[in-house]
Design a protein that fits this description.
two-stranded antiparallel ribbon, mainly alpha
């Protein structure tokens, strides 16, 4: 956006990056994962789609799959945590107490 050595600064580019968010990216508006990825990496968007306001499709699909897996793992761990624990002290147990 600029050069510290000569003091130049591209205000137009700064404004373009400031507008690069999930509300300005058409692919993100209806995406369930938009607040997790924030529209992806602007460098990837530029490199692969030619515009920072167009989300990189492959990166987008990979990020959604990562999030699905992370949510599934977290839910499975929470489910295990919520399972009732045995209160058997070993002396006075019912038949199903281990």
């Amino acid at each position: 956006m600029g050069n510290l050595n000569d003091g130049t600064f591209n205000e137009e580019m700064k404004q373009r990056f400031a507008k690069a968010n999930v509300y300005s990216k058409s692919n993100c508006k209806n995406c369930w994962a938009k607040f997790y990825c924030s529209g992806g990496c602007n460098a990837n968007n530029w490199q692969y789609e030619g515009d920072i306001l167009t989300s990189h499709k492959v990166g987008c699909e990979l990020e959604k799959k990562r999030l699905e897996c992370a949510i599934m793992i977290k839910a499975a761990l929470a489910d295990q945590k919520d399972m009732p624990q045995s209160t058997c002290d070993g002396d006075d147990c019912f038949a199903d107490c281990q």
